[in-house]
Amino acid sequence: MVADFSKDVFMFRPVSRWLLALLLLSGSTRLSAQAGTIILVRHAEKVSPSGDPVLSAPGQDRARDLVRALEPYHLDLIITSQYRRTQLTAQPAATARHLTPVVVPVADSIMVYAAQLAARLDRMPRGSTVLIVGHSNTLGLVISALGGPAVPDLCDSDFSTMFVLFRPAGDSVPRLLRTSYGRPAPTPATGCP
Fold first, then answer.
1. Pairing state of beta strands 161-166 and 77-80?
2. Which residues of the chain have pLDDT under 50?
3. Three-state SS for 60?
4. CA 86 to CA 79: how far, in whole Å?
5. Which of 3, 63, 104, 137 is 20 to 30 A from 112 (CA-CA)?
């Protein structure tokens, strides 16, 4: 026996169209999408100051500390740059969450890179949580591109800072939390804020 739901479907369509029209015409209802929580960290400590180095032993420890720091969050996406130090920092968290990090290469212009990341996160389902593992000179620009406040570049010795940008639905202003994880960063060099 096959049920005939054609009458139910016919009755539902006018209501659906009316409801959709009401939502579209409502000025207070936004149907856009965007990631709601963005967690940003710099890559962990590296073995060499130049090239494309791997993580040092303290950097490997910090990458594992990141897994514990992320426990309160449900991650939907992890983004790294093309450099091994960002990918190796993200790998323990990705493994723990069964996620495959997405590589977004840092362009010749870090302003372009920040804009590309912001555009990608604006297409995410509303309420998504994303981890970005970046660099000392990219995190502040990404935060600004996402509507957050101006943040200076991190000091060269700072690997412990974690930013959490909350982007509420609607027209509310994003909120930024600056915290740390893992072993504390050493005292910054003279001239570093």
1. unpaired
2. 1-31
3. helix
4. 9
5. 63
